[in-house]
Design a protein that fits this description.
Layout (H helix, E strand, L loop, with lengths): L1 H11 L53 E8 L3 E6 L5 E3 L9 E2 L2 E2 L5 E6 L5 E6 L10 E5 L16 E6 L7 E14 L3 E12 L13 E11 L3
Antiparallel strand pairs: 1-2, 1-12, 3-6, 4-5, 6-7, 7-9, 8-10, 10-11, 11-12
């Protein structure tokens, strides 16, 4: 169990950048992005609120152990990614969970879903610091990132996204209101879909002098519990 958890933890490192703080930047917004709002995934009582699904919520959910991703915009790609310990980790799924392995507590504060493409693309979905993911269907809104690292300087959303989809060595960050939708979630699998508006996070320190690229990442997943 420890070896399996450590393997997932190694891939989870890429999501920690989402919690980094910075002095901020202005991220370009794709032309078809929704109007900016400040959605919250928690109600006054702290319970997860189900909100309107994204445009791709009616997409066909894959029936096998798979995550399908389409990227459109200045970057275009389409790929499928399998399940297994390299791509999915959820604390309550691990036998003997609620223990700590390599500094990670394996409870509902630990979740990672990696959708990996064959050309180095990676869309890594995880939790913000001290956030919890209950084992239940829900819709998690994700607002525009506060800083160039794709993170939030205050009031982070439950779900945070670290996309690595090409075009140089720049960070990509959520650039407009996005959503991660869980339609099925139990002890055997997790299924759902997502729609992320992203852009290159360039600033005066890291730039190639070209306008930042933007893209829309949509996907559907149905991933088995690998434990």
């Amino acid at each position: 169990m420890k070896a399996q958890a450590l393997k997932v933890y190694g891939l989870a490192i890429v999501t920690t950048l989402a919690g980094c703080s910075s002095d901020g930047t202005t991220l370009p917004t794709p032309a078809d992005a929704p109007a900016a709002t400040s959605p919250s995934s928690l109600g006054d009582d702290g319970d997860v609120q189900v909100t309107t699904p994204p445009d791709n919520s009616s997409a066909t959910i894959v029936t096998d152990d798979n995550c399908h991703v389409d990227i459109t915009g200045d970057i275009n790609a389409s790929f499928d990614s399998g399940g297994g310990f390299s791509n999915i980790g959820y604390g309550p799924w691990v036998p003997g969970s609620a223990v700590t392995v390599a500094g990670v507590t394996l409870d509902d504060t630990f979740f990672i879903l990696n959708c990996q493409g064959g050309e180095g693309e990676l869309v890594s979905i995880g939790l913000g610091l001290d956030q919890h993911l209950p084992m239940t269907p829900a819709n998690y809104p994700i607002r525009k990132a506060d800083n160039i690292f794709g993170g939030y300087d205050s009031n982070p959303p439950v779900i945070q996204v670290s996309p690595y989809i090409g075009s140089g060595d720049f960070f990509w960050a959520i650039s407009a209101d996005s959503v991660f939708n869980i339609t099925e979630f139990d002890a055997t699998h997790i299924a759902g879909n997502f729609q992320f508006y992203v852009s290159e996070a360039k600033n005066d320190i890291v730039t190639d002098g070209l306008p930042a690229k933007t893209a829309v990442i949509t996907g559907a997943f149905n991933i088995k519990n690998p434990n």
